[in-house]
Amino acid sequence: MLDKRSFSLSGHRTSVALEPEFWAALGEIAQAAGEPLSALITRIDAKRAEGQPLASALRVFALKEKL
């Protein structure tokens, strides 16, 4: 089951659907960094490869940070 959330990135609204476990991991990472989840997603968005879907970039980031 996917959980869909909406964010504002670069001045426009976008939605991302991820498994709840990935949202939980990203939330923990953001909390440990002392920033809101939206700020973490903005950072990941700015660094993702051209053409890489945001959902994929978020999953890869969460896996790398949690391993």
From TrEMBL:
Keyword DNA-binding: yes
InterPro entries xref list: RHH_dom, RHH_sf
Top-rank lineage group of the source organism: Bacteria
Pfam families for the chain: RHH_4
Single GO MF descriptor: DNA binding
Keywords, alphabetical: DNA-binding
Domain Ribbon-helix-helix: 3-64
Protein name: Putative DNA-binding ribbon-helix-helix protein
